[in-house]
Amino acid sequence: LIEFCIKAVQKFEEKTKSKIDEDYVNSLYKKFYEIYARKGSKEQGRKTFLKKMSKLKTNEQILEKARKIVIAYRQSEKEWQFEKRDKQYIPLISSWLNANVPD
Fold first, then answer.
1. What distances in angstroms separate CA 29 from CA 3, 24, 33, 48, one per listed residue?
2. Is 93 buried (19+), middle (13-18) or exposed (0-12) by CB count in 10 A?
């Protein structure tokens, strides 16, 4: 029984160590969604954003990747403005993340 309990605790610790801080990622996504030019498919975008962050281990790594995402987005936004693209032709957030952010 003691060995079973020890193994259960070890499995729990492994899962919690490898799991990213979803609340932190969600808070970053919320801020990113607020600035994104086209609203819609918010939940799918959140899932994609979370997937893009899933391999990172620390909040510092997550924040750094979020900064890179915002920089890439700002570049896309400038291009859209230069093209005078209507909002309906701006990709939804999930599509943009998949096309512009590596896993």
1. 41, 9, 6, 10
2. buried
Contacts with 62 (C-beta within 8 Å, 6 or more apart), sequence order? 20, 21, 24, 25, 28, 53, 56
- For 4-103, list the strands marked E by DSSP: none
Can you tell me the distance from the alpha carbon of 10 to that of 21, in angstroms, rounded to the nearest whole number?
19
Q: How far apart are CA 93 and CA 99, in angstroms?
A: 10
User: Which residue, chain included where needed, has tokens 């994104």?
Assistant: 36
CA distance 75 to 36: 12
Amino acid at residue number 7: K
Does the structure show a pLDDT above 70 at 15? no
Q: What is the b/e burial string over 25-45, where b = at least 16 CB atoms within 10 angstroms of the residue's CB? A: beebbeebeeebebeeeeeeb
Please give the full DSSP string across 77-99, using - where no structure is assigned: HHHHHHHT--GGGSPPHHHHHHH
pTM for the model stands at 0.78
